[in-house]
C-alpha cells in the first residue's frame, strides 16, 4: 500500500471532523446560529413594533394637522364675521353721524330762516309804522291826530311783531 499525500490529507480531514464532533463544535455552531436567528427575529419584531408606533404617530399628527386646519378655518371665518360686523357698525355709526349733522344743519337753517323772517317782519313793521305815521301826520292835524297816530302805530307794531 502506497500512501501518498492526498491519503494523509483525507485522514487529517476525517480526524479534524471527528475532533470537531467530539468537542461539540456542531452543537456550538447550531446554538450560535439559533441565537443569531433569535436575535434577528427579535430585531425584526422590534422593527415591526417601531414601524407600528411610527404609523400610529403619523396618523396622530395627520389628525392633529386636520384639526389645526379646521381650527384655522374657524378662526378665519370668525375673523371675517367680526370684520363684517365691525364694518356694518362703522357704516351705521357713520350714517347716524351724517343724519345727526344733517338734522343739526336743518335746525340751524330753520332758526336762521325764522330769525331772518322775524327781522324782515320787524323791518317791515317799522317801515309801515313810519309810513303810516307820515301819512297820518300829513292828514290829521292837532293833538287828536297825534294821539290817533300814536295809537295806530302801537296797534300796527303789535300786530306785525
Describe it:
The protein has 161 residues and is mainly alpha-helical. It has one domain (5-160). The chain contains three helices and no strands. Helix 2 packs antiparallel against helix 3 (142-160). The longest helix has 115 residues, at 25-139. The protein starts with a helix and ends with a helix. The model has no long low-confidence stretch (mean pLDDT 87).
Task: Describe the secondary-structure layout.
Layout: H1 5-23, H2 25-139, H3 142-160
The percentage of residues in β strands lies in under 5%
Distance between the termini: 171 Å
Task: Profile the largest sheet.
Answer: none
Principal-axes shape call: rod-shaped
Order of H and E elements? HHH
Mean pLDDT: 87
What is the gist of this entry?
By secondary structure, the chain is mainly α.
Tag the structure with descriptive keywords:
161 residues; mainly alpha; 0% strand; rod-shaped
Amino acid at each position: 500500500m502506497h500512501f501518498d499525500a492526498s491519503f494523509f490529507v483525507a485522514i487529517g480531514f476525517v480526524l479534524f471532523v471527528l475532533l470537531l464532533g467530539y468537542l461539540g463544535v456542531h452543537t456550538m455552531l447550531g446554538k450560535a446560529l439559533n441565537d443569531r436567528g433569535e436575535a434577528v427575529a427579535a430585531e425584526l419584531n422590534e422593527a415591526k413594533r417601531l414601524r407600528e408606533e411610527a404609523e400610529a404617530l403619523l396618523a396622530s399628527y395627520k389628525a392633529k394637522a386636520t384639526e389645526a386646519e379646521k381650527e384655522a378655518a374657524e378662526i378665519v371665518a370668525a375673523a371675517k364675521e367680526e370684520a363684517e360686523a365691525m364694518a356694518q357698525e362703522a357704516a351705521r355709526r357713520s350714517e347716524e353721524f351724517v343724519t345727526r349733522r344733517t338734522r343739526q344743519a336743518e335746525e340751524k337753517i330753520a332758526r336762521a330762516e325764522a330769525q331772518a323772517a322775524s327781522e324782515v317782519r320787524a323791518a317791515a313793521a317799522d317801515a309801515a309804522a313810519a309810513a303810516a305815521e307820515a301819512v297820518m301826520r300829513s292828514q290829521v292835524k292837532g293833538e287828536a291826530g297825534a294821539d290817533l297816530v300814536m295809537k295806530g302805530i302801537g296797534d300796527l307794531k303789535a300786530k306785525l311783531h
